[in-house]
Amino acid sequence: MNIQKAAIIGCGFVGASSAFSLMQRGLFSELVLLDANQKKAEGEAMDLSHGRPFAHPMKIYAGTYDDIGDCALIIITAGANQKPGETRLDLVHKNVAIFKSIIPEITKRNFEGILMIVANPVDILTYAALKISGYPKERVFGSGTVLDTARFRYLLSEHLNVASRSVHAYIIGEHGDSELAVWSGANVSGIHINDFCELRGHFSHDEAMERIYKNVRDSAYEIIERKGATYYGVAMAVARIAESIVRDEHSVLSVTSLMEGEYGLNDLCISVPTIVSQKGAEQVLEIPLSEKEQAELKKSAEELHKVLESLDL
Fold first, then answer.
1. What are phi and psi of 196, to 5 degrees?
2. Active site residue 175
3. How far is it, in rounded angstroms, from Cα 167 to Cα 261?
4. pLDDT single digits (tens) 170-209
5. How many CB atoms lie within 10 A of CB 91?
6. Is it true that domain 146-309 has CATH number 3.90.110.10?
7. 2-142: which CATH topology?
8. pLDDT per residue over 124-161, tens digit each?
9. Where are the domains of the chain?
10. Catalytic pick from 159, 175, 192, 205?
11. Could you give the maximum distance between any two Cα atoms of the chain, in Å?
12. Residue 167: beta bridge partners?
């Protein structure tokens, strides 16, 4: 396995933007692009390669499944796009069928690295990839609510006029309509979010919390309505996760992980804070939740279970 080599399967907006983001970070020395449309993959590889004089040295090329067996990381963005008015869960049957053709091609190549699922609905497709591949749970996880968490921290930082890196808060659950904000643990540099709000002159906590949560939850719909797709934010989230893997950071990120009793949940993949390292999704963390948040997480899991029951996995 070559720790400096990665592959992206799917060269649509998200895949191409992720390739660009990875190139900017200089995490890998070799990046293979795959797509059902080979010419699209070739065009993206050419376009990115022309920027190499301005970035880190990196070999970028369009390849086939035979080129990816020794990759440390394979990122799967392939799948049907979410259309205006369509939920992420509406995509499920189309994209599970696509995964049933992709994953066996990977397992045939004796791949020993990590599979990161980015295509939506990411929680369902991560579970599907885990079941189809038969890989250990640490080696298959999804981008989850890493982007939703970033949106949450950004909106809180704007509301409070403080650096977003000083905001510590998570969105967990389904990467979709049933996701929830963990307000009980939200803080700015150790100061509880409500106390910090009051320090900044904000006292209508319930109204602000509801507004900010809805803006996070509905962000993708708002962007899709305006420009047809979301890709820059998730591409940066993908690069951030990849960075934690390559540099063995053991960073805590809200990726989609398999539940085996954590939070009272079993046999599904859902987004919760997880330690991410070269091993992959190394350890799921059970962060403290209020009773309301526990009930909301259970409800979110039930929504995912309903979908999983309709699939042939």
1. -70, -40
2. yes
3. 29
4. 999 999 899 999 999 999 999 999 999 999 999 999 999 9
5. 21
6. yes
7. Rossmann fold (3.40.50)
8. 999 999 999 999 999 999 999 999 999 999 999 999 99
9. 2-142, 146-309
10. 175
11. 59
12. 188
